[in-house]
Amino acid sequence: MKPKIAFFDFASCEGCQLAILNCEDALLDLLERVEIVEFREALSEKAPRYDIAFIEGSIHREEDADRLRDIRERSKVVVALGACACIGNVQARSNATAPAVNLARVYGEEARDRVQTDPDHWGLWAHTRVRPISDVVEVDYYLRGCPVVPTEFVKLVTALIAGSTPRFPRAPVCTECKRAGNLCVFAQGETCMGQITWAGCDAVCVTQGYRCDGCRGILPGANVEAHRDLLRDNGLDDAAIDSRYDLFCASQRTASRPKAKVAPKQSTLAGRPTPGGRAS
Amino acid sequence: MSGESFTIAVNHVTRVEGHGSIRVNVHDGVVDDVKLCIVEAHRFFESFTRGMKPEEIPWIVGRICGICCVGHQLAATKAVEDSQGLVPSEQTVLLRRLLNLSQFLQSHVLHVYFLAVPDFLGVPSVLPLARSHPEVVKRALRLKKLANDFTTVFGGRTLHPMSNTLLGWRRLPDRAAMADIKRRLTEALPDLEATVAIAKSLPMPPYERETEYVSLWHPDRYALYDGEVYSSDTKSTVPVSDYEQVTNEHTVAHSTTKWSRWHRDAYAVGALARLNNSFAQLHPAAQQVASDLGLEPPVINPYANNLAQVVEIVHCAHESLALLDRALDGELVSEDLSFTPRAGRGFGATEVPRGILFHDYTFGEDGRCVAANAVIPTSQNVANIEADMRAFAPKMLGDLTREALTLHMEMLLRAYDPCISCSVHMLDVTFVE
């Protein structure tokens, strides 16, 4: 039987699902080998159980956390799809401000007070914090970046169908940037997050003339203090450095240490070694 | 169905961007309540952009929406430039117009083929079409890939492009790649004719309502990148800096939302609004397609927005070819993109596939953002969608089965091509009578 694949979205721009739809060359071939059972952005169908659940978006409300836990219960493999699900992405920067202040800035104080005291809207308006999905459930695989890299998606699905464990490079963007033959951003008089950021994007932003802003998240074990020293040496003060880290990695900077809840043993389509709770 | 009482509820409507639900309450055979609920979580872009530098703003706020990331970048770029007293060169404006056109092509092809056509052909998604109408799906993928590659040539990649910034391009588009896009666009013209043929065969639900249409308007061209704000009610324009007079974001009793209204309780933006307001400026080939599809302004059937998108696909292809000729005529030159940040407020607007988009930023003395506002097409449309539902539901109740009524409500929502991620500060729009 073809593996059942589902896509779910929480708080996000839904661009990562779009990036998957943009795999035009691989899409029709992939569709021969898997069954897509939920993809709200493109389909009207729904299903009860999934072999692979792709989760796009960060978790902001308790009702969203409950929905995510329910999906986890019904899925063999859970994949965080894109920076929002992996690390909270740009919106995690709002965690530095009280939710009530954020609401007031966007909707006005009067509207905020009215909706927050209306029991009919408590669920909708109960914004807690911007959380990556690993703060709520166990995650088997991470497809990083804003947006995800479509070839990594194809690689992951292909490996899982074949019953193997996909491997992704555990190195900083700098390694790929050198390989791409780019002149170092620091040598151009700008600053860059490439030294401390997970690779896998082929340093596309630098190749295209910009810098790395760290959308793939901070590489575990990266020497953040040395990187901050480097930014300081290049003229950024502490506030500017914090603001820079908080463009994409606010949830990681404010966490006491980079936190990623990876399932103890990564699941394959053969299932997870955890007993209890889930019907087979 | 007279005398019955029931509720039609469609939770998390599919094939739209973002989360929305529709509720229609019927009491004793009479529609007594229609609600369009937007249930997306908020992301607070207008709050967390505070503290950012001018050049970071367009790059970050593009993340408001995947499908319209280019439009958000461009509107924000124009607003930030306005606040900083920066004037882009003719070359930069030309490249931006091309980048914008590529996104119109990509978004309209995606919407027409993937999100709308399945309804009209009576299938739940584009996937069954791969078996029953393989040529349709292959053409859709071919056109979409062309549009995506078009964006990549000008933006550096399809989603959240990084080559463009304030004042110009960090890395100019490659000449051979531009020529290749031009060749492929020319070769795609028969695919566009086939797209028009599909559009011609689509049955249109026969529901109409007098509507105020709002769009950018430009005297010399079909306004997609620049112009002033035009209303079909007054047949006149106001400057973009007066956008707050247009959108009039306001709250209503028992609703958590900000609504938009200008001269009436609601107005519509998007492809149909542009076609109605700027028909004379459409490329002649697109005008011909509009006539063939029976779209002579004023068109007040909201379902026709899908047809207007097809007209715009044809227009954008021809406009792109003309602008590519200009970009290929001579060499693009690297420009000095440096500037000294200053305090100030600026406004920017551009048309995006779903309608007119406004951005507004204020910077402090230290050159850091202190206030931000964005008014998104879908949030401007939400009141109008509900007004349509309110007007059509009683007629549909007489004409249609309950299942067909539900489908027609979903199709109406999809016809507007709503982009709900963008418009989360429109949470829960309700109409109760």
- Give the strand tally of chain B: 14
C-alpha geometry of chain A: flat
The unreliable regions of chain A are 273-280
CATH architecture of chain B: Orthogonal Bundle
CATH topology grouping of chain B: Cytochrome-c3 Hydrogenase, chain B
The Cα radius of gyration of chain A reads 20 Å
Most strands sheet of chain A: 5 strands, parallel
The CATH class of chain B turns out to be Mainly Alpha
The stretches of 5 or more residues of chain B where confidence is low (pLDDT under 50) are 421-433
Proportion of helical residues of chain A: 25-40%
Beta-strand share of residues of chain A: 5-15%
The CATH topology of the domain at 4-94 and 128-161 in chain A, please? Rossmann fold
% residues in beta strands of chain B: 15-25%
Examine the secondary-structure arrangement and name the CATH architecture of the domain at 4-94 and 128-161 in chain A.
Answer: 3-Layer(aba) Sandwich
Helices of chain A, by number, come to: 13
Task: Provide a short characterization of the protein structure.
Helices cover about 35% and strands about 15% of the residues of chain A. Chain A has helices at about 15-20, 25-35, 60-75, 85, 100-105, 110-115, 120-125, 150-160, 175-180, 205, 225-235, 240-245, 250-255; strands spanning about 5-10, 35-40, 50-55, 60, 75-80, 125-130, 140-145. Chain B has a single domain, classed as Cytochrome-c3 Hydrogenase, chain B, CATH 1.10.645.10.
Please describe what this structure looks like.
Chain A has helices at residues 15-21, 24-33, 62-73, 83-87, 99-107, 109-116, 122-125, 150-161, 173-179, 204-207, 224-233, 238-245, 250-254, and strands at residues 4-9, 35-39, 50-56, 59-61, 75-81, 127-131, 141-143. Among the domains of chain A are: 4-94 and 128-161, Rossmann fold; 173-236, no CATH class. Chain A is 36% helix and 13% strand. Chain A is flat. With 280 residues, chain A is of the alpha/beta class. Chain B is α+β, with helices and mostly antiparallel strands and 433 residues long. Chain B has helices at residues 45-48, 56-61, 69-84, 90-121, 127-132, 134-155, 175-187, 189-201, 243-247, 271-278, 284-292, 305-328, 377-399, 402-415; strands at 6-10, 20-27, 30-38, 164-165, 168-169, 214-217, 228-231, 236-238, 250-251, 258-259, 344-352, 355-363, 369-375, 429-432. Chain B is globular and about 70 Å long. Residues 421-433 of chain B have low confidence and may be disordered. The interface between A and B is large, with 63 and 63 residues.
